[in-house]
Design goal:
Elements: E1 2-3, E2 14-16, H1 19-26, E3 38-40, E4 51-58, E5 61-67, E6 72-77, E7 106-107, E8 113-114, E9 116-117
Antiparallel strand pairs: 1-9, 2-3, 4-5, 5-6, 7-8
Length: about 120
């Protein structure tokens, strides 16, 4: 599979993390920027299922906050395996920056939403 370059609109949903969620992210053993208290959904507009935003990355695990109108939770995921240009060693702007198994279309680090195509 490859990432296609037609721009789409991202989901406008936002979440404000509570004190327990912020404490969880801040206790992860990782040298990373401070966690933002308000996050935007990183999936494409009109996606199915819960909203999702990357909270923190620790080694190869990405901790994503997922939420609906009634609940939220933090879940560990790995990177989505879809690549824009197979065989290129640098992940910047070349691979989907979402989690494996995400709903909807794929995204590059430019936050443009892309449709999936066969490689």
């Amino acid at each position: 599979m490859a990432i296609h370059t037609d721009d789409l609109i991202s989901c406008p949903a936002r979440i404000t993390l509570d004190a327990a969620q912020l404490a969880f992210f801040n206790e992860l053993p990782v040298d990373a920027p401070s966690v933002q208290t308000e996050l935007s959904c990183e999936l494409e507009q009109g996606h199915e299922g819960s909203h999702a935003a990357l909270g923190q990355q620790a080694d190869t695990t990405m901790w994503w906050i997922q939420w609906t109108l009634s609940a939220s939770e933090i879940n560990p995921f790995t990177w989505c395996p879809v690549k824009q240009q197979p065989g290129v060693p640098d992940r910047d702007d070349l691979e989907c920056t979402l989690f494996a198994g995400h709903s909807g279309k794929h995204s590059s680090t430019r936050r443009s939403w892309h449709s999936e195509e066969a490689a």
